[in-house]
Structure formats: structure tokens, C-alpha cells
Amino acid sequence: MSPHPSTLDDHLRADVETLWRYHHLDHEPRRTDVGVGLGSHDLGVADHTADLYHAGRFPLVVFTGANAPTTVDLFPRGEAVHFGEHARARGVPAAAIRLETRATNTGENITFTRRLLADLDVRSVTLVSRPYQQRRAYATCRKLWPEVDVVCAAKPQTLDEHLHTIGDDDRVINMLVGDTQRIILYAERGFAIPQPFPADVHNALQRLIAAGFTKRLV
């Protein structure tokens, strides 16, 4: 049993779990040239980036992100700024952190970070994101920064643990639905490389949309 039980309705749980598992890539951890913490409403991204830095996974950290409607109240000075401050409070040296403060979507996170690091010979990156952003971050990076080796990472959490941490089931499910839709849509629009999209994921997505989780749909 999870130590953090959720109030998630039983009739939604199977479909939400299906999407949750789909976005986990389970990449093998390895050392890379830089760790890129993707801005969001989840401060756990900054925590996990700091943990990986201290574990020796990369010598340099970039936090990237301005604000989205879901973060402007939480991080009024911008996601990257707040994440950088949090990482420094966790012991990451200021000299090991760079901030990219203009990006407002994942494509810009990748593009602007690539420009920020143009003075370095970056051959590999660890993308640190929300647990359910991993697949979209990977697909976007492979399209927009194809020459680098990409490893995706997220704070190890069960679905219930993540729901407990965020404290808003509706927000998490809407974000999951939105990120899943973007896997197909952004590949079709040329923003990301195509990803496998199994039938059970498609069916779970459609049922959750029909249940009203449409706030993050494109």
C-alpha cells in the first residue's frame, strides 16, 4: 500500500495509471555533460536535479523556464529562477548553475538551452522533468537537438506519491492528458520525433477526455 493514499476515484485509476506508466522511459542512469531541469509547477524537478548533481551525474546544471499559466502564482519570478534558488539551498554551487529564463514551452526549453550552452562542447544531456513529461521531453530533444545523447530522469515516485506531493489530482490528470495528446500532435506538426502509441494508451486517453479532463488539451 502507498504511504500517501490518493482520493483518486477508482473508476479513473486504471486509465490514469496507464498514462502514468506510458510516460516513464526508465532510461539507464549514466553520467552526462549537463543536467537540464525543465521548469514546471513541480519543485520536485529542482530537488531531483540537485540529487543527481550531488551523485556526480553531471558537473553543470541548467534550469530553464519562464512562466506558464499554471506556474505564475507559484513562481512569480520565473520557474528557472526559483528552481535555481532551490538547488543552491540544496547545496549545488552557484558556479555550477546556469539559468535560461525565457522558455514558455518544452520546445523553447530545449532550443534556448542549446543556445545558452553554445560555448561548450555538449555531447550528452540529462533531462530532468516531471515524471509524466519524460517521453515528450525526450521526443522534443531528439528533434531539436539531435546531435546530443539524451537521458531522461525524474524523481522516483508512484502515482499516489506524486498526487500527494502536488496536492491537486485534477491538475495532475489534466496535465497527464495534455502531455499524452501532445505526443501524437507534436510529432505530426514536426515539433518532436514520433513515439509508439499503444492501443491501451489511446483508449485510456479517450476515456479521460470523455470524463472531462480537457483543460490542457491543445
Automatic annotation (TrEMBL):
InterPro entries assigned: Cell_Envelope_Assoc (IPR051599), DUF218 (IPR003848), Rossmann-like_a/b/a_fold (IPR014729)
Domain called DUF218: residue spans: 45-150
> What is any one of the record's Gene Ontology cellular component terms?
plasma membrane
The record's listing under Pfam families reads:
DUF218
Q: Which PANTHER family match?
A: DUF218 DOMAIN-CONTAINING PROTEIN (PTHR30336:SF20), INNER MEMBRANE PROTEIN, PROBABLE PERMEASE (PTHR30336)
Q: What is this protein called?
A: DUF218 domain-containing protein
- Organism expressing this protein natively: Amycolatopsis methanolica 239
Lineage of the species this protein comes from: Bacteria, Bacillati, Actinomycetota, Actinomycetes, Pseudonocardiales
